[in-house]
Amino acid sequence: MKRDIIVIGAGLGGLVSGAKLAKEGKKVLLIEQHNIPGGCATVFKRKGYTLEVGLHEMDGLHEDDFKVNIFRDLNIFENVEFLEIPEFYRFTNERVDLVIPDDIDQAIKNLIGVFPDEELGIRKYFDVIINLPKEMFSFPKKKWKQLLLFPFVPILYPKLVKYPKMTVGDFLDTITKNDDLKLVLLANLGYYHDDPYSMSMAYYCMAQSSYYRGGAYYIKGGSQKLSDYLSQVIQDNGGEVLLGYRVERIIVEDNRAIGVEYRKTSGKNLEIKKSFAEKIIANAAIPNVVNNLLSSDEAAVLKSKTMNLRNSCSVFSIYIGFKKPIKEIGNKYYSTFIVDSKVKNQTDLANCVKGDLSSKNFVFVDYSQIDSQLAPKGKSVGSICTVDYTSVWENLTKEEYNKKKEEVAQIFFDRLERVIPGIKQEIDYYEVATAKTVERYTLNPQGSIYGYAQTLEQAVPNRIKQKSPIENLYFASAWTFPGGGFTGAILSGYLCAIGILHNQWH
C-alpha cells in the first residue's frame, strides 16, 4: 500500500511531524529501529524505578513560545501533564553558591546580591538575551510561512543586530570581567553546546531566554508519556507505527525519493521489505542519511553541504534510584550545577569538558523536588549528567569499558557527597550511560544528541533546513533548523510538516 508520508525514526522530530501530518489526513507510516518510540524522550525501568533518559527540564510554555501553539494543535496539554520546576538552577563552586530563579527580576536581584559591582553587566545580559529573540522572531507567531522562509528578520531591535554575529563567550567578555559571574550565567551551557567561545549567541539567546520568560517544566511520569501520546496520535488518525524495524535504504529515482527498504532489527524473519510514499521524512541523523541510506551519487549534493559540519557533543549520565526522597536529607533544589575547582574562567570551562571525566562540571537533577511519579512510594530518582564524547571510550575492551564507567561513577558520587552530605548512602541502584551508549541507542554518530554543533557558523540562520536537495525528501530532527534539544526537535518536526502541508519548501 502506498502512503502519503513515510517517517524514518521516532524521535520527537519524527513523532511531531508524523502526528501533525496524520492529524491533517495524510496516510503516515513511521518506522523506528528501537522497540519504543521517543529517541532521547524515553524512560526505562529498573528495580521499580522509572529512569528518565534525557529530559531534565523543558523550557518555555510562555505566550510567545511556538511550542504552545504546537501543543494546542496536537491536543498535548489535554493528554500530557507538565510540572513546573521550582527554580532554574543552583550553581556552586568553591567561591560561589547561588540559586538562579526562572523569574527575570528575581534572577537579577539574586545576581546583584552576590556580584554588587556587576549590576550594569548583569542588566545588560538580560536585556540582550530577552530582546534578541524578539528581534529575530519579529512577526506574529501564527505566520508559519514567514518562519519557514524568513526566520530572522531584524525589525524591532535593530540596535541588537550585532549580537547574532558573536559567540556567547565574546558577548560575556564585553559585559563583565568577573569570571565567576560568567561561570554562573553559563552553568547550563551543556544543555546546548560545550564551548562558550564557539557557541552561537543567537541560539543561546533563543533557548536561554525561554527559560527565564516561561520557566521550566518536566513531564509527569517521564518524557515517554509525550512520545507515546504522539505515536498514538499517528495511529488514531489512520497511520501505522512500526517499532523494531530499521530503514536500510531510501529508494530514489531521478533524484526523487519514492520509498524505503527496511527490515526487522532482531528475530528470525529479517528479509528486506519495501514501502512507497509521496514524501519521505528522515528523522534519522543527516550523516547517516548521507553515508548509509543513500548511494554516493544520490547523496553527492547533500554531502557537499554537510561534509565539513561539526557534530555536537554527547552526554555521560548516571541514572540513580534512591532509598528515599533526596529532599528529605536536606537538598532543596531540582538542578544543581557543580563546577570543579580547576575551572576559573570561560577558557577553563571549554577545556574542562574535554579533559578528565573526574574533574568535569556536572549537573545533579533531583526529581524528588516535584511530583515526578518516577519512583515507588517513599523512594526517588535522580541523575548526574555531564558533557561527553565517544573518543573518551574508544579502544577499550568490554572489561576496561565497564571498569572505567564504574570508576568515574564513584568519583562523581564522591563529589556529589561533598555538596549534598549523606546522599551516597541513599543510593539503591544506579546505571551508567556514556556517549557510546547514546550512539548505540539513537544511532546518532558520536552520540551527538544536539545534531550539528551550535557554533557561530552552523547555527541559525545558517542551520540546515528541512528540505533536502533530493525532491520529496525532508528532514525533521535535531540536525536541522533550529537545532537540538527537546524544543528544537519539536519545532523542527512541526515546521517540516507545515512546510509539506502548505507546499512552502522550494
Gist of the model:
The chain has 15 helices and 19 strands.
Per-chain topology:
Elements: E1 3-8, H1 12-23, E2 28-32, E3 43-46, E4 49-52, E5 58-59, H2 66-73, E6 82-84, E7 89-92, E8 97-100, H3 104-114, H4 119-136, H5 144-149, H6 168-175, H7 179-185, H8 201-214, E9 216-219, H9 224-236, E10 240-243, E11 245-253, E12 256-264, E13 273-282, H10 286-293, H11 300-306, E14 314-322, E15 335-338, H12 346-352, E16 362-366, E17 380-388, H13 398-419, E18 427-433, H14 435-442, E19 473-475, H15 485-501
Parallel strand pairs: 1-2, 1-13, 2-10, 7-15, 13-19
Antiparallel strand pairs: 3-4, 5-9, 6-9, 7-8, 11-12, 12-13, 14-17, 14-18, 15-16, 16-17
Provide a count of the helices.
Answer: 15
CATH class of the domain at 3-41 and 222-310 and 452-501: Alpha Beta
Largest sheet: 7 strands, mixed
Instruction: Determine the mean pLDDT.
Output: 93
Task: Count the beta strands.
Answer: 19
**Strand coverage percent:** 15-25%
CATH topology of the domain at 3-41 and 222-310 and 452-501: FAD/NAD(P)-binding domain
> What's the alpha carbon Rg, rounded to whole Å?
22 Å
Please report the distance between the alpha carbons of the first and last residues: 28 Å
Instruction: Tell me the CATH architecture of the domain at 3-41 and 222-310 and 452-501.
Output: 3-Layer(bba) Sandwich
**Low-confidence runs of at least 5 consecutive residues:** 149-157
Helix content: 25-40%
For the record, what is the CATH homologous superfamily label of the domain at 3-41 and 222-310 and 452-501?
FAD/NAD(P)-binding domain
**Outline type:** globular
Structural class: alpha/beta
